[in-house]
Amino acid sequence: MTTFASGTDTLTRDALTVLQPGFTGTTAPDWLLRRLGEGLASVGLFGRNIASPEQLAALTAQLRAERDDVLVAIDEEGGDVTRLEVRTGSSFPGNNALGAVDDVDLTREVAAELGRRLAACGVNLNWAPSADVNSNPSNPVIGVRSFGADTDLVARHTAAYVTGLQSAGVAACTKHFPGHGDTAVDSHHALPRIDVDTSVLQSRELAPFRAAIEAGTRAVMSAHILIPALDPDRPATLSPRALTELLRGELGYDGLIVTDGMEMQAIAGTYGIERGSVLAVAAGADAICVGGGLADDETVRRLRDALVAAVRAGELPEERLADAAERVRALARWTAAAAAADTERTPDTEVGLSAARRALRTTAPEPFTPLTEPPYVAALTPVANIAVGDETPWGVAAELFRLLPGTETGSFAGEDAGHTALAAAGPRRIVAVVRDEHRHPWMASALDTLLSARPDTIVVEMGLPQATPRGALHLATHGAARVCGRAAAEVIAGV
To answer: Most buried residue, 9, 55, 183, 215, by most Cβ within 10 Å?
Structure first.
């Protein structure tokens, strides 16, 4: 069992226990190992920490050599948001593709296989699934991370995902409570506001979370969003009304409540991470997620000291901090028992590709003849949101090159993207790849230019398929995962 460093008092240990920090590098730094010995109970992993499954397994073993019951968390949604395959693209389509297929058994199977891969690497807490109902097509941060815009569909697939993931011994963390789907602002950059009345909140936003709770989700992640009908003063992460009265009281949830990243500007830019962390725990949060942007020992020290000082000043009840720490330890016990009970699972390496193929939607005004010559792939590339990041490759060029050697590609953006792409393509057949055409006027204009000059252009939409399908062939993949690109390339090349 873990032996805590002598001299670490109970209050300080509890303050460390509720933190979920990140770090840089592919091995654990000395400061992190020292903090685990002092009471830190969780570690958050990001793409920067992962080079291969073997390296990740060695890293988690290194952490467990210091503390055997450590919670190792990751932001692995599959689809556009992947950490396991951050440099190659995911082997699993994201939620929107699964929602497009609408087969809950398939969603459960995909989540179980994803959970198996996480468990094999020593990860036991996944900050997924997204239970947000993407009711606002202009949402800049959720989009294809959501199962869809239909509440009932999102609810049943959220429950299936939770069940599948946890069947592999990996705790699900359903997010972003009470629902981030109806926002037009990314909470990484500012504080979103959702102006809906309580009846809409109850019937739309909360339904998937009720389904997740009924399915036994072990964790729920709060959202940094302001819903005046719920709490006119504080975002959900800092709101006792949202976390204690609504989530704990009305919805009857008894598991771990985790905050979204506290360094996101919705919190850091308004309250600061120290004050925000104190308010979050006081409101009912049990674990403070930090480390996507701030990933060092100084951040851990600052948050630990802020929590301890708040207790000593009477601003944060000591019993609330102790309760939060105990919920973290309870989840650690569950993951240990679940891992021990999980039988050897037979890998299903094709389930992600199968799901991506089933999610593909094709539209063609005339019968389409597959390509036999290598095309030019013009990727009309928007700025990636922070949750997705810009490390992960996307598109169809790599998969088309595998099927049609000699395929060339270029990335284009801005007002002159269409003309520049035409010049780069020369006489080659053009495959235009877009991501959320409906949200980017310059992208729609570029497609106008391409299709006007080259009506035989093939269009692949890898975001939300909200714009009218056009082109000699239009393929909607419902996500930009590697397997989504492969499914589209197979149709284009006729294999």
So the answer is: 183
Q: Closest by alpha carbon to 186, among 437, 381, 480, 385?
A: 385
| Per-residue pLDDT reduced to its tens digit, 56-74 | 999 999 999 999 999 999 9
Active site residue 189: no
- The DSSP bridge partners found for residue 78 are 81
Give the DSSP letter of residue 173: E
Which residues are CB-contacts of 165 (< 8 A; sequence separation ≥ 6)? 111, 112, 114, 115, 126, 128, 129, 171, 172
Q: At what angle do helices 10-17 and 297-312 cross, to 10 degrees?
A: 130
- Asked if 171 and 334 touch (Cβ cutoff 8 Å), the reply is yes
Is 438 a catalytic site residue?
Answer: no
DSSP code of residue 187: T
Confidence of residue 193 (pLDDT cuts 50, 70, 90): confident
Give the other-Cβ count within 10 Å of 80's Cβ. Answer: 28
Element (H, E) at 107: helix 104-120
What 3-state class would DSSP assign to 65?
Answer: helix
Q: Give 488's pLDDT tier (boundaries 50, 70, 90).
A: very high
Catalytic pick among 188, 440, 474, 478: 188
Q: Cβ(203)–Cβ(154) under 8 Å?
A: no
List the structure tokens of 329: 């330890």
DSSP 182: T
Token pair of 326 as six digits: 């105990």
Tokens of 356: 């991506």
Q: How far is the C-alpha of 128 from the C-alpha of 76, rounded, in Å?
A: 7
CB–CB of 102/362 below 8 Å?
no
Name the token pair of 160: 């299936």
Side-chain half-sphere CA neighbours of 341 within 13 A = 11
Beta bridge partners of 464: none
Q: What is the separation of C-alpha 300 from the centre of its chain, rounded to a whole number of angstroms? A: 23
User: Which distant-in-sequence residues (6+ apart) come within 8 Å of 232 by Cβ?
Assistant: 226
Sign of CA dihedral 47, 51, 57, 63: negative
From the candidates 14, 260, 286, 436, which is the catalytic residue? 260
Q: What percent of the chain has pLDDT over 70?
A: 96
DSSP per-residue letters across 292-326: SS--SHHHHHHHHHHHHHHHHTTSS-HHHHHHHHH
